Inverse folding.
């Protein structure tokens, strides 16, 4: 099971969403699909139609910059980061 | 005693200011909507719900909705996306609640509707084929802060009849629920050359007199204008104002000849002239204008007010409210004669709407 860490800004939007979620997924896109199944609408907060990752959402798999098609293994750590911006 | 509720959309969330029918003492709640930037928020008198158009730099555009006057909220963007034609919904600029549905004007220019109280949305129109549409999706033609369709004005009685503003292009009218459109910009002027005289106008705010459906007013990039024929033609009424430029406008609920604007310097600053805060009123449909300043700051007050930043309530003696790009809210309980500052330190304000709840 991949270990997905979601940004704090997502937590108040979805009832019961924790900062860390274990999902069974072969790619980053599948991991987001699993989250969207449990918390409908979550994909739209991370991806634009396409789907492609939103401009200011960055994903890292085992600390390396990743894309939606990046492969996961059962021990992968996935960090979803809202880019540092704004003021 | 009715409850008076102000919905203040800001760069850092929605704020709700509440008072009674006297409109003297106000209590504020917020920031709501998790601090998402709110471009426009409205109250639907039919359902009692509040809707807030939001766009997060991180998490995209969506509409927040609350059925308990802002105590609890839900966000949805389901269906708020173009088919895969390359256009993107980057911003929801204006919300309209009328005739049992919600309409949302968005950037890139288009209109979405929801018939289930904002839970799901579907594309109603991109005004495809209208003059100007061949160019308005080109990013090169979209100025900074482009809003796409910043506002939709519904006809109060005819559910399929409404007007849409396309930013920098003009007003379009439909009487068949967006199946067909007609440009309604005759008589407007520009300070720039037009390839097609039907379009190319910069309409900032369009309002209808609640007491005369033929009487429309608009604050344009160049001038104040009125229409006495439901928008078929326009006449400029800028004489007597300190500036032809401004964003906000409000029509008196009981007198078709009374109308309010907030003139601004037209340059980069776009703030009230000479550091003096003022709302201007006509009571004769634009023949003459009065400057209303009692209670407003008259020194070093470089205040900006955006297109949704001025609202008027529907009480017998209407109250007016405006919010500034520096976070102040000013209110008048006597048709603009006297003003007081009812909030001083909010984030930059995009919109002010008022609801009177029995």
């Amino acid at each position: 099971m991949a270990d997905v860490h979601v940004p704090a800004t997502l937590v108040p939007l979805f009832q019961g969403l924790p900062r860390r979620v274990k999902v069974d997924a072969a790619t980053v896109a599948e991991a987001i699909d699993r989250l969207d199944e449990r918390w409908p609408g979550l994909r739209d907060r991370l991806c634009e139609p396409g789907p492609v990752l939103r401009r200011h959402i960055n994903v890292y798999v085992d600390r390396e910059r990743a894309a939606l098609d990046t492969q996961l293994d059962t021990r992968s750590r996935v960090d979803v980061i809202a880019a540092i911006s704004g003021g | 005693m009715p409850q008076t509720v102000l919905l203040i959309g800001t760069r850092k969330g929605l704020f709700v200011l509440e008072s009674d029918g006297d409109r003297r003492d106000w209590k504020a709640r917020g920031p709501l909507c998790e601090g998402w930037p709110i471009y426009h928020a409205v109250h639907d008198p039919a359902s009692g719900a509040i809707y807030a158009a939001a766009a997060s730099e991180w998490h995209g555009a969506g509409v927040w909705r609350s059925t308990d006057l802002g105590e609890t909220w839900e966000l949805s963007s389901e269906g708020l996306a173009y088919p895969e034609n390359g256009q993107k919904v980057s911003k929801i600029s204006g919300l309209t609640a009328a005739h049992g549905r919600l309409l949302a004007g968005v950037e890139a220019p288009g209109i979405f509707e929801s018939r289930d109280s904002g839970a799901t949305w579907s594309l109603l129109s991109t005004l495809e084929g209208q003059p100007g549409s061949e160019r308005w999706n080109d990013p090169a033609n979209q100025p900074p802060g482009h809003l796409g369709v910043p506002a939709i004005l519904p006809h109060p009685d005819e559910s399929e009849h409404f007007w849409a503003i396309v930013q920098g292009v003009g007003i379009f009218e439909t009487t068949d629920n967006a199946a067909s459109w007609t440009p309604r910009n005759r008589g407007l002027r520009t300070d720039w050359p037009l390839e097609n005289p039907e379009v190319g106008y910069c309409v900032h705010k369009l309002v209808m007199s609640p007491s005369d459906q033929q009487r429309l007013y608009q604050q344009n990039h160049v001038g104040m204008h009125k229409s006495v024929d439901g928008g078929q033609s326009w006449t400029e009424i800028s004489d007597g104002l300190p500036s032809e430029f401004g964003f906000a406008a409000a029509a008196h609920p009981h007198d078709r000849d009374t109308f309010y604007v907030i003139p601004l310097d037209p340059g980069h600053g776009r703030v009230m002239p000479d550091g003096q805060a003022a709302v201007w009123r006509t009571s004769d449909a634009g023949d003459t204008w009065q400057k209303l300043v009692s209670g407003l700051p008259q020194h070093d007050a470089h205040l900006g007010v955006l297109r949704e930043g001025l609202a008027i309530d529907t009480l017998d003696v209407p109250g007016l409210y405006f919010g500034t790009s520096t976070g102040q809210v000013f209110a008048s309980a006597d048709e603009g004669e006297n003003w007081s500052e009812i909030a001083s330190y909010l984030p930059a304000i995009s919109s002010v709407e008022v609801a009177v709840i029995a």
